Each structure stands twice: as C-alpha cells, then as structure tokens.
Amino acid sequence: MNAFITPQNIYHGENSIERLRTIVRDLQVKHAFVLTDPALKELEVIQPIEDILAEEEVPYALSTNVVPEPPLAVGNEVLQEIREMEPDLVIGIGGGSALDLSKASAVLADHEGTVEDYLNLSGTRKIQSPGIPTVLIPTTAGTGAEVTDIAVFSLEDTKDVITHKHLLANYAIVDPQLTYTLPPKVTAASGVDALTHAIEAFTSVNATPLTDTLALDAMTRIVNHLRSAVWNPKAYEARKEMSLGSLIAGLSFYNAGVAGVHGLAYPLGGLFKIPHGEANAVLLPYVYHRIWPSCLDKMYRLGEVFNLSLEGKSKREAALEVVQSLHELVKDVGLPTSISAYDITSEDIEQLTSNGLKQTRLLARSPMPFDGASIRSVYQHALRGWE
C-alpha cells in the first residue's frame, strides 16, 4: 500500500492570491501575523497581501525577521514574536526560509520549549498539536516548501529539520505573478532546486507510480522552461511553467523524499553558508554521476525528459548523457559547477564527509547506498570540477 499526502487546500495560477480574501473570511480572522523576507517588503512584492488584509479589515503584525538558511536563533526569535502576539492566522510569504520559519513557528507557538527541542537529529520533544492555521505563499519557483511538512534550520556546521504532519499548511497559494521580478541568479538556483526535488523523488527508493507521474511532469516543465525564465525577464509563460513545475515537484518529493543530493548539500550550507538551491545545483551532476548504475530504467526515462536522442543507445549510454545534461543545465543558467567556486579546498573534504554521513534520513532514500568513501568521492569530484 502507498500513501499520498498533501496540504488541505492548494490554489495556483495567476491571481490566486485573491483566494486569501476567502480564507480570512472563512476563518473569521481577528489578528494575522505576516512573516516575509525584508527585500520583498522593500520591493513591495507583498503589497497585494497587505492590500487584501486592509480591505478585509484584518489587523496584522508584519515581521521581516527572515534570513537565508535560518539559524536556530532566528527561528526562536520568530517563535517568540508569534507567542507574544497570539495571532489566529500565520501568513508566510517568500522563499523557503520564510515559509519554513512560518510553519515551524505556527505549530510550536502552543508547545513548550525552543526550536532545537524539536529537531529531527537531536531534539527531545515531540509535536503534539496542530498550532495556528497557516497560509504559505511562495515568491520563488523552487523550494516546494508550501506543500511539505519540513522546516530546515542551519546549525553550526550542518543542517537539521523539524518534520511533522502538523507543519503542513492549511492553505498553500502559488501565484506565479509573485515570481515575475525574481533576478536571474535566484531564478536559476530555485529552479535547479525544484528540478533536484523532482529527480530525487523520481529515483527515490520510496517512489510510487503517483509520485513518478508528478515528478516526470515537473521535470518536463522545468527542463523546457528554466533557461528562458532565467535569462529572459519578459518570459512570463516560462515563469508560469516554472511556478507550476515547482509546486508539482514539491508534491512529489514530499511523498517520495529526496536523497543524496540534499544529504550532501546540507553540510555545504552548514559549513560554508552556501544557499540551499546553489548547494543542490553544484552537487546534482556529481551525485548522479555516482548513482546512475542503481537506477538505469529511471535514468533512461530522464533521457526523454531532456529531449535526448536515444534511438539505438543502451541504458548505460542514456544514463551518462543524462548526467552530462544535468551538468550543462547548471552551467547554462549561470550557477557554479565546482565547489571550489565557494573557496572550498581539499582540506575541507573530511569535515564535509563527516557531516554528510550524519544525514541518514536523506541518504536512506538513495537507490545506491552512501558510505564514507562514496561521500568523500562525490565531494572530491565536485572539487575538481567536471571532467
């Protein structure tokens, strides 16, 4: 038997942000807490949300206490803000960090303790109740955080997560218009992040026919439209496809899980503060360069997604062409293709390997097992660059 889980309500498409009106009316919201990235407030990206709340006469507190790859300290600050304000709705708007902080804080607001008490690897407390209702609204096409129950936090030299079904949003609103002004680098990093979600879900040991169907759809949209979305600021149709592709990838990976790319990317973020999407992008070709023999049938189907000419080619040949295509895509959208671009040296490999081994939750989903030697090999290859 296979299970498939989603948030209670998902709205997507242009102008879907207007659904927020119905939500606040249905919930009879008396006081909302809005959390967003400071840049989005400055650029007035969140103005439509503020206008709706004002027009619906819903008082709200606005916090911009969001940083990329949020550390525990920021998580606890947001948690304390929500506990003090006691809102009856939490609205998270922004990239993955804003959404993760929103869902974790909304749930933990009526629990005792701090964020670190509920971490997957080291926490000692368990989530017991749903907390405050949430509306999660992404402004990037990449993280899928609006449809998952995972909140990621940076530790001193790695990352850990809080994960529980209660972190699922009550409402997810995916309006591509909120992504139209994203700069190229953010579009590229978030887009490859979404692609990584779909690919890892597709090759996960927990994949199902339903998650495969979603992953294939997501990958097709992303592969066909990411380059245009990055380099053509007026390519709104490409932005729409990326927005929907990211959402569909999120639904797939939430149920099938991500694996080795994410597991080895976490230490890059923890030790070197590399943004999550970039960390995934720089490792994506190298991880699949290692594991392709364990998922040949899936890799062959990926060849079709990448529009490769497969006639007369073996599954091995197709798999290697897919790996090459992953490298070319990362390069084409302007992202680094070697971890040396982040001032990582050979002296850092052992620490990265040690931290990567700790990501057992993620590595367990890989179709090919990872041990210390294989993790070290991936990092070393990523340090040397593509050959």
Question: In words, what does this structure look like?
Answer:
By secondary structure, the protein is an alpha/beta fold. 51% of the residues lie in helices and 10% in strands. The chain has 15 helices and 8 strands. It has helices at 19-26, 38-42, 47-55, 72-85, 96-108, 184-203, 209-231, 236-256, 260-272, 276-291, 296-305, 315-332, 349-357, 360-363, 372-384; strands at 9-12, 32-36, 60-63, 89-94, 134-138, 150-154, 159-163, 171-174. A 6-stranded parallel sheet has the order 1-8-5-4-2-3, with helices on both faces. A hairpin with a 4-residue loop joins strand 6 and strand 7 (159-163). The longest helix has 23 residues, at 209-231. The chain starts with 8 loop residues before the first strand and ends with a helix. The mean pLDDT is 96.
Task: Compile the SSE list and pairings.
Elements: E1 9-12, H1 19-26, E2 32-36, H2 38-42, H3 47-55, E3 60-63, H4 72-85, E4 89-94, H5 96-108, E5 134-138, E6 150-154, E7 159-163, E8 171-174, H6 184-203, H7 209-231, H8 236-256, H9 260-272, H10 276-291, H11 296-305, H12 315-332, H13 349-357, H14 360-363, H15 372-384
